[in-house]
Amino acid sequence: MSKNSIINSKPESKSFFDKPYFADNLDSGTNTPLLEKIVSLELDDNLSQEDIEIFNKILKGCNDLLKKKVNSHEFKINKYEFFELKFIEKKDIARYLIYRYKYRHFSKKNKIGKFPPCLQIEPTSVCNYRCVMCYQADKSFSNKSEGFMSNMSLDLYKKIIDQVEGKIESITLASRGEPTLNKEFVNMLNYSSNKFLALKMNTNASLLNEKLIHSILSTDIQSIVFSVDAADKETYEKIRVNGKFEKIMKNLNLFAKIRKEHYSKEKHIVKISGVKISDTQSLSEMEQKFKDIADVIAFVPYTEWESAYDNEENDLKHACQELWTRMFVWADGKVNPCDYDYKSTLSKWNVKNKTISEIWNSKEYDSLRQKHLDQKRNTIEPCIRCQN
Ligand code: SF4
User: Is residue 26 over pLDDT 70?
Assistant: First the structure.
């Protein structure tokens, strides 16, 4: 498939936290009052031995930061976590930091727990957009006749949530499709409310209306991410094919108005997040345009999702972190290790006949991890074409 001419960025493999992609007021990563609050926390009696050990490492990292030990090897809270911590109640801080430790450090230590640190659940694989850098631009995926398009039932969604409540802190409602297209989306959100510390949703904002905005903001959802890549109509509509810039601005402004008038005391984090695919996108213009709508404005680096199975083979040797940090449940119940592989070449599992924990700890999943650790990712499709 030939690349759309607006794409002129190179795909990147590094975490976007390491890159100057944020256009917000995140602090530099040292926040003394917050660190002092953390080191004075009393541990919850219900924590497992493993979580106690993790929390002690976190405490050591915080103490090192307070003593300005810059070479400390213990867990350092990064600037995005400092930002999120401002929205976390004191009673939940230890829980939050343990989840972040598992998310960021288990992959470095090749460690897996009983459950993945994060679970992405896709309410639907259908999308009303055909963004140029997205798998939806691949007709062999998005054409109905190809068999990849479906909506998750509320029953299946509830079955998954019941398994992971209290076991996983981070649940994201989104992946290959636009989640609000599923008619059960609000019921899914309501069913998940007050069960997770990091409940998130991603949306292109095209279907927002007063009723949906109230439904979203009246849950305890932590993060609402609007996928918007540009501050001007021309660039936006070139990237977000089928999107109408005026309509998105109207919806986002309505969201901001309702949030301000009715939910200003709630601890939601609103993000505008784009994919940096072109030098015509400007972070400072985004900040200017969306500063009254979002708390965080950021770009994530470009991944060549739109041509995942045709990208050139590479000779990367490192193990892909996705295999230790996240797992994806597609709308039809299929489970996949990542969304680069949007046609599920790597999938051997379905939540209809195995539990989340069984899948995460299965021998097939472990064998995939081991191949990556043995520097044999070049024997696996599509890992051989992926920059992650
Ligand atoms: S295709 Fe392979 S290397 Fe790429 S994200 Fe998925 S598991 Fe990781």
Answer: no
